[in-house]
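Aggregate trends can hide what the representation actually does to any particular protein. This step matters because it turns folding into a mapping between discrete strings. For completeness, the protein is quoted in full, as a sequence line and a line of structure tokens:
=====
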Amino acid sequence: MATVTLTTENHDTTVEDGVVLIDFWAGWCVPCQRFAPIFDKASEEHQDVTFAKVDTEDQQELAMRYGVTSIPTLVAYREGIPVFSQPGALPQAALEDLISQVKNLDMEEVRKAYAEAQQPS
């Protein structure tokens, strides 16, 4: 599956279903350039996962919304709930492990914890 270019306009509909991995990157970022082929290879191997890329130079509002201060930053969603966010390029094996972990989450527990976290203090 080709990667999707994520923008403020298509963000909400993109992350609402299934497993979604978002790569925040910039053209001038050397670690981003090294991570791109790893991310692209995983996108070809996992047809059941949506792989999205955010150009932080073009989509500054979206990067700010996520609080991205270091790139690359990888964010994972499952069924519309953010379940992972971490700066830094991952090696292929670590990315594969992350994808497996996100796919195998107990979503009943995740939804419960997410709902509790959304309650005002």
Remarks:
- The helical segments are 11-15, 30-45, 60-65, 92-103, 107-118.
- The chain has one domain: 4-118.
- Residues 4-118 form a domain with the Glutaredoxin fold (CATH 3.40.30.10).
